[in-house]
Amino acid sequence: MGEGILFVISGPSGTGKGTVCRKLVERTGIHFSVSMTTRKPRPGEVEGKSYYFVSEETYSRVLEEKGFLEWANVHGNRYGTPREEVLKQLDRGRDVLLDIDVQGALQVKKNFPQAVLIFLLPPSMAELRRRITGRRSETPEAIAARMAAAMGEISRADQYDYCVINDKVEAAADRVEAIMKAEHSRVSDSVYELIEKYKKEERGEMSL
Ligand code: ADP
Ligand code: 5GP
To answer: Ligand 1: distance of its center to the CA of 164 in Å?
Structure first.
């Protein structure tokens, strides 16, 4: 991986990941990775912006060609993160943001331990149900399935680097932005270059 940081946001369906990610893109211009899915578009979703909506055949081909950084079956549909674009952006030194499910996030952590995993939590289960229902895009059966899956997902929050409660969108985005800024000041191997720079400067000054 290059200089950019790979940030992964996940959490139960309806918790507000899409909403918070859009806010972050708006505020910071971070590169948002558009996933590929076999799900049908919802009203208002835009091809190439919300997702790349593809057939089962296309998805299977990309999977076979190892074109996904991570992938998962979620609520009966298949999703994957196109590998090449993410690596290209990171190599260019740009941060990348993924909005993916828990299975996918843990695959990313395994393959890229330096990725930063952020779990977005709803303020309560009642509010989660209100948000899923309020979106009016799922059938009652689909809502029940998402609520049932939510507890299993939430119980894996302890495998993440950070937990953020999405009470108010602006406040949640503030917290994620703070995490992003802090991660850029984390001590890494580049600290040795800095130490050398200071040593060199100090030696130079002493020999004057
Ligand atoms: P996800 O991407 O996690 O499935 P969405 O971003 O689609 O969730 O949000 C689900 C619903 O909850 C949407 O109708 C969205 O407008 C609403 N929502 C998101 N965040 C908040 C919030 N902080 N307060 C109230 N409603 C929210
Ligand atoms: P939705 O169909 O509601 O847009 O998304 C359903 C779930 O799939 C969400 O939890 C979302 O984060 C997840 N998801 C979206 N894209 C990907 C992806 O590329 N990989 C994985 N693992 N999950 C994804």
So the answer is: 14
178: alpha, beta or left? (left if phi > 0; alpha if psi -120 to 50): alpha
Q: With residue 99 as reference, give the H or E element that holds it.
A: strand 96-99
SS3 letters for 145-173?
Answer: HHHHHHHHHHCCHHHCCEEEECCCHHHHH
Q: Which residues line ligand 2 (CB under 6 A)?
A: 10, 13, 17, 35, 39, 70-72, 74, 79-81, 99-101, 103-104
Q: What is the pLDDT of residues 23-82, one digit of tens each?
A: 999 999 999 999 999 999 988 899 999 999 999 999 999 999 999 999 999 988 999 999
pTM above 0.85, yes or no: yes
Give the position, in ligand 1's atom list, of the atom nearest the Cα of 21: 6
> Helix or strand or coil: residue 36?
strand
DSSP 159: G
Q: Which residues contact 47 (CB under 8 A, 6 or more apart)?
A: 41, 53
Going by CA atoms, what residue is nearest to atom 12 of ligand 2?
A: 100
Nearest-ligand number for the alpha carbon of 10: 2
Helix (H, G, I), strand (E, B) or coil at 187: coil
115-140 pLDDT tens trace: 999 999 999 999 999 999 987 767 88
